[in-house]
Design goal:
Blueprint: E1 2-6, H1 17-22, E2 30-33, H2 35-38, H3 46-58, E3 64-69, H4 71-82, E4 87-93, H5 101-113, H6 126-135, E5 152-157, H7 161-173, E6 177-182, H8 189-192, H9 194-208
Parallel strand pairs: 1-2, 1-3, 3-4, 4-5, 5-6
Helix pairs in contact: 5-6
C-alpha cells in the first residue's frame, strides 16, 4: 500500500520531511509528490495540475492512501471521488470541498502585492500562483461526496480559522470520516506541528491496516 503525500500551495515535497522523520515506523511505501515538477511545462491551472496528479496516482499498482494539505487535500478529495475503487483511505488536512471564492480573491490580492522573489523556492512563479488560485474558484464537490466510502481522517490546525468550518462540515458529510484538531497549529501543520501530525497519522495507519 503506497502512501502518497501532497503538499499545499507555497510548499514543496520536502515540506513533509519533518513529518516522515517523526513517524515511529519508517516505510519505503511513502511518496512525496512535487506539484510543480509533475505538471512540467504545461499551462498552470487546476485542470492540468489535477490531470498530472491523476496520472501519478494511476501508475501505482498497489492500493493508495492519499494524504494532502490544503491544495493537496483538494487534489486528493477530487481523485477519490473520481476513483473510489483505487483509494484505500484519505487524510485531508485543512480541506475545502467548495472553494471559498472570497478567500481565493484575498489570496490573489496578497500574491499580487508580494515580490517575485518570495515565490522562487516553491517551484511556481508569481503568475502561476495567481493563475492556479483563479482556476480553482468554481470547484464544488458537494454533489459527489457520497461516492467516497473509504476511511477518512480530517485534520485541521486549531488556529486555522479559514478552514476549520469546512473541515468539520466535511467530516459530518462523509460516511466514514473522523475529525481532529491539532493543538497550537495554524494552517501548515506539516511544518508547524510535525510530531503531533506524525502521531495522528500513525494512529490512522494502524487502524486501516488491521
Amino acid at each position: 500500500m503506497k502512501r502518497i503525500y501532497i503538499h499545499g500551495l507555497g510548499q514543496t515535497a520536502s515540506s513533509w520531511n519533518p513529518v516522515l522523520d517523526a513517524l515511529p515506523v519508517t516505510s519505503d511505501q511513502n511518496i512525496c509528490l512535487d506539484l510543480s515538477a509533475i505538471i512540467k511545462k504545461q499551462q498552470i491551472n487546476y485542470s492540468n495540475l489535477y490531470a498530472a496528479f491523476s496520472d501519478c496516482c494511476d501508475t501505482q499498482t498497489e492500493e493508495i492512501v492519499l494524504c494532502g494539505l490544503s491544495l493537496g487535500s483538494v487534489l486528493a478529495l477530487h481523485y477519490a471521488i473520481d476513483h473510489p475503487d483505487r483509494v484505500k483511505a484519505l487524510i485531508l488536512i485543512a480541506p475545502q470541498y467548495k472553494m471559498p471564492k472570497h478567500l481565493l480573491k484575498i489570496q490573489n490580492m496578497l500574491f499580487r502585492c508580494m515580490p517575485k522573489s518570495m515565490f522562487k523556492q516553491t517551484g511556481f512563479d508569481k503568475n502561476a500562483f495567481i493563475a492556479l488560485c483563479s482556476s480553482m474558484a468554481d470547484l464544488d464537490f458537494r454533489k459527489s461526496l457520497n461516492k467516497i466510502t473509504c476511511p477518512v481522517s480530517i485534520l485541521c490546525g486549531e488556529k486555522d480559522k479559514a478552514n476549520k468550518k469546512a473541515a468539520n462540515e466535511l467530516s459530518q458529510t462523509l460516511k466514514n470520516a473522523q475529525y481532529q484538531e491539532i493543538n497550537n497549529a495554524s494552517h501548515e501543520v506539516n511544518v508547524e506541528a510535525p510530531v503531533q501530525l506524525a502521531t495522528l497519522l500513525h494512529q490512522f495507519y494502524s487502524q486501516i491496516e488491521r
